[in-house]
């Protein structure tokens, strides 16, 4: 293995990428099956390690343990305050620089996302656990409500053994949110991280293992889509939180339909950014570049389609090209990189084939970012002009977006609502009130006005998904509630037989 070192700061050879391991029924073990595809350093193509997959016996052990943990009910019986205390301990430990930095380095090295971004994401992990703790400390899972014959107890209780399946992009942020939410709900759970990025999950498992929770409360099972599907199909699994592509979401919905398993499906997006005629073009250009570069646009809320008023298109594109020229594309571990490579060769080829397809349909490629002198999977952020809206309906999941023009707001709205997705949208106009009116009509989970950020609009607002972008909402409250069902206990009112008492 001969991997060139980046010029700045961290060097690849210093990174101890943990080998994929399972945490099943209270013990760590190596996933037993023969390795699948190799994990490569996306910066250089150099081999990093084997991709390891659990075998049937390990999966069966994990399912038996999560089921037993639920039947014993020890974790569920912890009071919300006791569970909150555990979540806060996890937060404290994961805030320690050695863990946060390990997760950030692993994510940057395995996904190609720039280290500055993965550090930001790792730094948010403790807040995710603390937020879940604060929510359940607030008494939301156990309340007294007025009833017809005295007070009624209203509980939210875990549905049962829960399965958490995360994707390769944002593995630390997505994995931590799922773990914190399931544990806060009192649900014993199994996390199956992506086969491409199991490392930060392993670091979180190491921290949780030290806390000696009741056996089977938290487990980690490494593996691929088949591993996930095997667990999805098991009748002992009573709730599934999945983040990934539409195909996986559809497979899970089909496999569980007969069991009525509650599903939280966070799928893809093809997110429009609308630039009105009166927009601050510099700010809009900044947003476009951010949407094409942040997380290397391997991000469900990345820029999908640029919708621009015809009168400002040329001026806008001029500014965008200027800004793209100054994007520093480089090694993902280089502190000065704005953007790194795509995760792996197959994904690189997929994104490249989309560019080729759009170009073959008459698309004109607009791209100005210099590629680094590295042999990895780099694709410069690219806008494609000249294709029809019907030719850009899917999710590319890379730094490529089509440009479409409009003359009226009604046309812009039709374009914005013109795909089957409905995750995120962005609107730029100097008239904030007008932008709000327009934004309210976009059928998607969240619309940001005059800005493009990795962070949610509000820490307490739900993150919704419309159309094929998913099912169910995410958020501290929403995700904890997702793992629970309502149970109401109280003394019954007495019906008056033959009387006229209202129900
Ligand atoms: P993917 O669907 O290929 O895999 C996601 C996870 O599901 C992996 O752990 C994989 O092993 C597992 N999996 C795949 N098929 C499965 C099946 N049939 N049953 C059970 N598990 C299965 O997605 P990916 O390539 O890892 O991630 C990229 C996709 O995720 C993109 O489409 C992106 O938009 C989406 N995503 C959505 C959000 C969101 O919040 N909406 C966030 C991040 C990523």
TrEMBL record:
Q: Name one Pfam family in it.
A: Aldedh
The source organism is: Parahaliea maris
- What would be an example GO MF term here? oxidoreductase activity, acting on the aldehyde or oxo group of donors, NAD or NADP as acceptor
Q: Which InterPro entries did the record assign?
A: Ald_DH/histidinol_DH, Ald_DH_C, Ald_DH_CS_GLU, Ald_DH_N, Aldehyde_DH_dom
Q: Where is the Aldehyde dehydrogenase domain?
A: 40-488
Region forming the signal peptide: none
> What are the entry keywords?
Oxidoreductase
Annotated protein name in UniProt: Aldehyde dehydrogenase
Family according to the record: Belongs to the aldehyde dehydrogenase family.
Q: Which residues form the active site?
A: 266
Can the keyword Oxidoreductase be found in this entry's annotation?
Answer: yes
Q: Which PANTHER family match?
A: ALDEHYDE DEHYDROGENASE, ALDEHYDE DEHYDROGENASE-RELATED
Keyword Oxidoreductase present in the record's keywords: the answer is yes
Q: For the region Disordered, give the residue spans.
A: 23-44
């Amino acid at each position: 293995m001969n991997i060139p070192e980046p010029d700045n700061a961290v060097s690849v050879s210093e990174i101890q990428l943990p080998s994929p391991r399972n945490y099943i029924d209270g013990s760590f073990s190596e996933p037993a099956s023969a390795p699948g595809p190799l994990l490569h350093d996306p910066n250089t193509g150099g081999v990093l390690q084997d991709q390891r997959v659990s075998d049937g016996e390990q999966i069966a052990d994990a399912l038996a343990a999560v089921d037993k943990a639920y039947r014993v009910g020890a974790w569920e019986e912890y009071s919300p305050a006791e569970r909150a205390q555990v979540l806060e301990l996890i937060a404290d430990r994961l805030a320690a620089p050695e863990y946060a930095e390990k997760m950030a380095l692993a994510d940057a090295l395995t996904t190609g996302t720039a280290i500055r971004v993965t550090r930001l994401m790792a730094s948010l992990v403790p807040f995710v656990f603390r937020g879940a703790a604060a929510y359940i400390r607030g008494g939301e899972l156990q309340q007294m409500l007025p009833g017809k014959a005295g007070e009624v107890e209203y509980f939210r209780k875990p549905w049962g053994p829960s399965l958490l399946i995360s994707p390769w992009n944002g593995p630390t942020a997505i994995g931590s949110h799922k773990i914190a939410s399931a544990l806060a709900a009192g649900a014993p759970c199994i996390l199956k991280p992506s086969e491409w990025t199991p490392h930060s999950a392993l670091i979180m498992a190491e921290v949780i293992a030290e806390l000696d929770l009741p056996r089977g409360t938290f487990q980690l099972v490494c593996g691929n889509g088949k591993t996930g599907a095997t667990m999805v199909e098991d009748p002992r699994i009573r709730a599934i939180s999945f983040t990934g592509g539409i195909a996986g979401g559809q497979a899970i919905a089909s496999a569980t339909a007969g069991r009525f398993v509650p599903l939280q499906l966070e799928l893809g997006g093809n997110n429009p950014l609308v630039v009105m005629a009166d927009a601050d073009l510099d700010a809009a250009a900044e947003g476009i570049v951010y949407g094409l570069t942040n997380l290397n646009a391997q991000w469900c809320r990345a820029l999908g389609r640029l919708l621009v008023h015809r009168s400002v298109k040329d001026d806008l594109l001029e500014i965008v090209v200027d800004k793209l020229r100054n994007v520093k594309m480089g090694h993902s571990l280089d502190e000065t990189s704005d953007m790194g490579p795509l995760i792996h060769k197959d994904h690189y080829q997929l994104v490249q084939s989309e560019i080729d397809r759009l170009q073959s349909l008459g698309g004109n490629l607009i791209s100005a970012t210099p590629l680094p002198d590295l042999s990895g999977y780099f694709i410069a952020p690219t806008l494609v002009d000249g294709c029809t809206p019907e030719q850009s309906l899917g999710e590319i999941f890379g730094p490529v977006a089509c440009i479409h023009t409009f003359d009226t707001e009604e046309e812009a709205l039709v374009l914005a609502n013109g795909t089957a997705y409905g995750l995120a949208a962005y609107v730029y106009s100097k008239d904030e009130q007008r932008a709000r009116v327009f934004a309210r009509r976009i059928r998607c989970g969240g619309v940001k006005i005059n800005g493009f950020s990795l962070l949610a609009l509000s820490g307490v607002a739900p993150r919704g998904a419309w159309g094929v972008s998913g099912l169910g909402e995410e958020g501290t409250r929403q995700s904890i509630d997702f793992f629970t069902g309502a149970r109401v206990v109280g003394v019954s009112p007495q019906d008056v037989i033959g009387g006229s008492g209202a129900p």
